[in-house]
Amino acid sequence: MANHYVPHAFSDIDAHPDPGRLVASLHRLSDEPFFASYKQRLRELLRARPGRKFLDVGAGTGEAARRLADE
Which of 15, 30, 31, 71 is most enclosed, with most CB atoms within 10 A? Predict the structure, then answer.
């Protein structure tokens, strides 16, 4: 039996037949208390201040980066 890599849907979202469904799942997850508290803790640890820069790579919808920028 040969090893066969099966990519996850999020591995190439642009090639997915329904990327909107994947984005919708990310929005649903962001409403879950565990993920909301995780993102809040991450913002606390980053200690965002005016003039600081952060690189957000492959972080879903980009909403977390927008919130960080607003803070």
Answer: 30
